[in-house]
Amino acid sequence: MMEEESEVIEHFFGVYLLYCMNPRYKGRTYIGYTVDPRRRIKQHNAGKKHGGAWKTSNRGPWNMILIVHGFPNSTSALRFEWAWQHPDVSRRLKHVPRKKSSQKILDFQLIVLSEMLKIGPWYRLPLTIRWLDYQFSKNYYEYISPPLHMPICYSKVTSCKVKQTQKTNEDNILSQLPIKKSLIFCSLCDSNIIEKDSVTCIKPKCFLIVHLICLAKEFCKDDMILPIEGICPMCKSNVLWGDLIKKRMVIIKALEEININFSNNDAI
GIY-YIG domain: from which residue to which, for each copy (predicted)? Predict the structure, then answer.
């Protein structure tokens, strides 16, 4: 059964699939990008004048049946959206057979999605495939077979902005990092390391600080260009490379904001 309570997620970037419930247009679909799924479906059903897309305007009601999220930023999500919308012209999806005339568009788009999750660069990301409608998940769950590190969820989702005054995990992480230019050393190569070249473990109590390139070499197997996952050298936890990069981006952004605030205070 679909869980009634919504899961709240921060830093949300998602690509969704709509299904038209209007008897006149039933069977039509729409693929889009959003940072707020609940607001976006309301816009689609309200029409173009209220922020909805012209392709969905006056054809509702629409049902958001599935969403893929966990992208590190809007650019990554928008590229995924474009490829999913245009599999015939995407160079990464040349191996996917074209839609047959007898094939339903929903069936075809779910097959394309399943293939996208298995190829680069997307198969390295810590993505989540989330069914938002129980009946559709029951009827179409076999169409999608993502890599093992990508979970399939069955619940609603709500995006949430991080409040400036709220003490977050990222704040705790920053308090552990040396904001001043004091010497710190890589846990793998023991050489000096600077903040912009470092990465830390996603586990709150782990104090791993290493060069990004050192950890990448540690995680890479065979002829991999980029790692997918690995064991933290310090806490021995299994971590996804995409989660490490996502956390690193949050920290870098926070450090930039700190520097801006300091600069503003100096100006005052």
Answer: 11-96
Task: Sketch out the chain's domains with CATH numbers.
Answer: 3-160 (no CATH), 169-267 (3.30.40.10)
> What would the pLDDT profile of 3-35 be if each residue is shown by its tens digit?
567 788 888 999 999 999 999 988 999 999 999
Nearest to 127 by CA among 4, 247, 249, 15: 15
